[in-house]
Specification:
By secondary structure, this protein is α+β, with helices and mostly antiparallel strands. The chain has four helices and six strands, in the order H-E-E-E-E-H-E-E-H-H. Strand 3 and strand 4 form a beta hairpin. It is elongated and about 75 Å long.
Length: about 180
């Protein structure tokens, strides 16, 4: 039973870490990434469809994304969807493709990205701590119901804390690495 609780705790903490990494994709760093367009969808024959499903989406350099739709009539739909999404850049079109020119990030924008990133990291830490609390509550319940001894409960809670410390340090290391990447000019 204790092993199941520890495995579930570890799995939940992995999920929290994965969610943080996924959230980082929405942050703008020095190099523009096509993931800034992930939430943008257009009506494609009655179905809301992601941009990468209706055309080629590539980052040609550190500040430019080019979207080449497979069907030319989609150009205006894609342009309006990008404008509505308010991603900080206006779409430019030549009738065949859409070019998004992102200005280089200022120091203030980089600091703002770091601030958002740290908030995401703190959310992940809170989630990990909540996972720890759930696991410890489950262990205490087993002890109260006399399914495990007090010594087993203590060692299980120590194991949960060890797992928690491991994930908190992973989060801190990731934050430090990501901060360096964002602030690097």
């Amino acid at each position: 039973m204790i092993n199941e609780i520890l495995d579930e705790c570890k799995m939940n903490m992995e999920s929290s870490l994965g969610h943080m990494h996924h959230s980082f994709k929405t942050l703008r760093t020095g190099k523009v990434m096509i993931s800034v367009l992930d939430g943008i969808k257009i009506d494609y024959y009655g179905t809301m469809t992601a941009l990468d499903q209706v055309g080629s989406v590539i980052a040609t350099d550190a500040t430019t994304i080019v979207i080449s739709p497979w069907e030319k009539p989609l150009v205006s739909d894609i342009e309006s969807a990008i404008s509505k999404a308010n991603i900080g850049v206006s779409p430019n079109s030549d009738g065949e493709k859409i070019i998004l020119n992102f200005p280089p990030m200022t120091v203030d924008q980089r600091k703002e990205s770091v601030k958002k990133m740290k908030g995401m990291g703190e959310d992940a830490k809170v989630s990990v701590r909540n996972d720890r609390q759930r696991a410890n509550n489950e262990i205490k319940r087993l002890e109260k119901e006399k399914e495990i001894t007090a010594d087993e409960s203590k060692s299980a809670q120590d194991a949960v804390q060890k797992i928690t410390d491991e994930f908190i340090s992973k989060i801190d290391a990731t934050l430090k690495e990501k901060e360096a990447a964002i602030l690097k000019v």
